[in-house]
């Protein structure tokens, strides 16, 4: 009778299957655990103190933004009063009023509007080939300053990057991976706004061998993404609320 | 045998089930926070923002006071004129149309045989304008309050460019590229930190880079003196400048 061998065979088969399944599951589990462990190792550990500082920082940044708006409003009110004073009283040396306006625009204190252009500069988000230097694909302080310099050569009267007005004492510097303009951190994408003769500025930026080509063409060794400058009948550039590197007290 | 079989199968299933549960909860444990960066950097940023807030608050006080002064003196022509003249004097300083005197540094960048002998290449001076405006940028980014290049004051509208090897322009005025003097009033230590990398850049062009401190308050940055006219930019809310 083949009863005994049959039973043993069934047992062997089922045990084999269970072992195979177990083995598979174990190896999957092991792999998954390693992935998880790796991911957790990459993330910094949650430090409650750092979390507290970060929350505080975000709060104070929000507050400062509100204060900046208040300063801009007060500067506008003041400008209005100065103009009014000059209008009401013609004997009140009109050149004082006009000079005040002129130098407030020149220093960067007063928000301005006028015809101009906008464009956006961004890091190259595509996969960077392993044999290429990452630094050629990201935006540097020097790139932003080069664009600003070019805009002023082309007759720009006011320029801002991500709402940070270029003033008498503006520095655009990288500290580590941070870009700071007017000592304030800004992040990609970098939106340029410039008031001036739009055609002049666009020609200067887009000219053959010009700054846009220099920063975006692989044959020049750079790979940034810059949108074509867009002309607009009115753009607005905010005023500067800061302390001019300690000059203003 | 049959019962034993069932028991072992049950045990194995139980084990498998619990393992899967553990596995699932391990893999999908949510991470709440990946914004946490270096604590030191956060604290530095927090300190900067706190300083900024302090300044903003004092600035708001000052501006409110000024608005009040103007409103109170609306009828008094002389006092109003004086208040406006005082304001104009301050604004001129910020715009760079008034000289500024103080402590600071003098940087001289000169063609140098020593730098060429050490491997500097004068043909690289084609990018002299690039390094000059970066240098000014780094002075401003490191607490410079006023800067001049060959006594041409740097203002918000300033630009620097090389038209050719012998024609370097600052504020659209030609200067001699062979010897350039840059003066900067401001925080001396901080400005020198900002200048760290620059001597090397200029040496590679065959130029010498020297920094002299001025600590007796006698360094004078001249005023910007070319006429300025705004044809396009006007204050928000104004009809015509």
Radius of gyration from the alpha-carbon trace of chain B, in angstroms: 31 Å
Subunit arrangement of the protein:
heterodimer
- Give the class of chain A from helix and strand content and strand pairing: alpha+beta
Shape of chain A: elongated
Mean pLDDT of chain B: 89
Overall body shape of chain B? flat
Strand arrangement, major sheet of chain B: 3-2-7-1-8
The largest interface is:
A-B, 106 and 93 residues
- Class derived from helix and strand content of chain B: alpha+beta
The low-confidence runs of chain A, each spanning 5 or more residues with pLDDT under 50, are none
- Tell me the β content of chain A: 15-25%
Gap between N and C termini of chain A: 107 Å
> What kind of sheet is the major sheet of chain B?
5 strands, antiparallel
Helix and strand pattern of chain B: HHHEHHEEEEEEHHEE
Biggest sheet of chain A, open or closed, and with what strands and sense?
6 strands, antiparallel
- What is the CA-CA span between the terminal residues of chain B? 102 Å
Helix content of chain A: 40-55%
What fraction, in percent, of the residue positions of chain B are helical?
A: 40-55%
Write up what this structure looks like.
The complex is a heterodimer of chains A (249) and B (241). Helices cover 49% and strands 18% of the residues of chain A. Chain A is an alpha+beta fold. In chain A, strands 1, 2, 3, 7, 8 and 9 form a 6-stranded antiparallel beta sheet that branches. In chain A, strands 4-5-6 form a 3-stranded antiparallel beta sheet, covered by helices on one side. In chain A, strand 4 and strand 5 form a beta hairpin. Chain A is elongated and about 125 Å long. The model of chain A has no long low-confidence stretch (mean pLDDT 89). Chain B has 241 residues and is an alpha+beta fold. In chain B, the strands form 2 sheets. A 5-stranded antiparallel beta sheet of chain B has the order 3-2-7-1-8. The longest helix of chain B has 34 residues. The chains are: A alpha+beta (249), B alpha+beta (241). The interface between A and B is large, with 106 and 93 residues. Strand 1 of chain A pairs antiparallel with strand 9 of chain B, so a sheet runs across the interface. Chain A: It comes from Tumebacillus amylolyticus. Chain A: Belongs to the UPF0749 family. Chain A: InterPro entries: DUF881. Chain A: Pfam families: DUF881. Chain A: Keywords: Coiled coil, Membrane, Transmembrane, Transmembrane helix.
């Amino acid at each position: 009778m083949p009863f005994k061998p049959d039973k043993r065979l069934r047992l062997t088969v089922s045990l084999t299957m269970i072992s195979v399944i177990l083995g598979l599951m174990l190896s999957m589990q092991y792999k998954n655990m390693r992935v998880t462990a790796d991911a957790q190792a990459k993330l910094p550990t949650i430090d409650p103190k750092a979390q507290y500082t970060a929350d505080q920082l975000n709060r104070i940044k929000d507050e400062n933004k509100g204060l900046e708006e208040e300063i801009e409003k007060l500067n506008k009110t003041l400008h209005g009063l100065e103009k009014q004073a000059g209008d009401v009283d013609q004997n009140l040396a009109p050149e004082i009023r006009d000079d005040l306006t002129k130098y407030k625009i020149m220093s960067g204190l007063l928000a301005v509007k006028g015809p101009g252009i906008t464009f956006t500069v961004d890091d190259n988000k595509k996969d960077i080939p392993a044999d290429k230097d990452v630094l050629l694909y990201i935006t540097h302080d020097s790139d932003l300053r080069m664009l600003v310099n070019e805009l002023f050569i082309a007759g720009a009267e006011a320029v801002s990057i991500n709402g940070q007005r270029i003033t008498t004492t503006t520095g655009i510097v990288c500290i580590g991976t941070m870009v700071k303009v007017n000592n304030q951190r800004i992040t990609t994408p970098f939106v340029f706004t410039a008031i001036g003769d739009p055609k002049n500025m666009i020609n200067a930026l887009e000219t053959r061998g010009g700054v846009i080509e220099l920063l975006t063409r692989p044959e020049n060794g750079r790979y940034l993404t810059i949108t074509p400058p867009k002309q607009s009948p009115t753009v607005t550039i905010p005023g500067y609320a800061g302390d001019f590197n300690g000059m203003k007290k | 045998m049959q019962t034993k079989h069932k028991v072992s199968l049950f045990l194995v299933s139980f084990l498998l089930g619990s393992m899967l549960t553990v596995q699932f909860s391990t893999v999908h444990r949510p991470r709440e926070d990946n914004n946490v960066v270096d604590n030191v950097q956060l604290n530095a940023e927090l300190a900067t923002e706190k300083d900024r807030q302090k300044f903003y608050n004092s600035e708001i006080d000052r501006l409110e006071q000024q608005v009040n002064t103007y409103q109170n003196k609306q009828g008094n022509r002389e006092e109003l004129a004086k208040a406006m003249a005082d304001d104009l004097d301050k604004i001129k300083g910020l715009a760079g149309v008034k000289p500024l005197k103080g402590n600071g540094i003098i940087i001289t960048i000169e063609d140098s045989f020593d730098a060429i002998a050490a491997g500097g290449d004068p043909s690289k001076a084609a990018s002299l304008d690039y390094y000059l405006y970066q240098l000014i940028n780094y002075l401003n980014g490191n607490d410079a309050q006023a800067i001049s290049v060959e006594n041409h004051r740097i203002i918000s509208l300033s630009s620097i460019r090389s038209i050719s090897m012998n024609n370097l322009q600052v504020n659209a005025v030609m200067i001699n590229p062979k010897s350039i003097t840059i003066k900067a009033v401001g925080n001396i230590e901080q400005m020198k930190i900002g200048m760290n990398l620059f001597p090397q850049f200029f040496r590679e062009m065959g130029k010498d880079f020297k920094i002299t401190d001025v600590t007796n308050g006698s360094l004078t940055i001249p005023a910007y003196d070319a006429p300025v006219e705004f044809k396009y930019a006007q204050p928000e809310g104004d009809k015509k400048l």
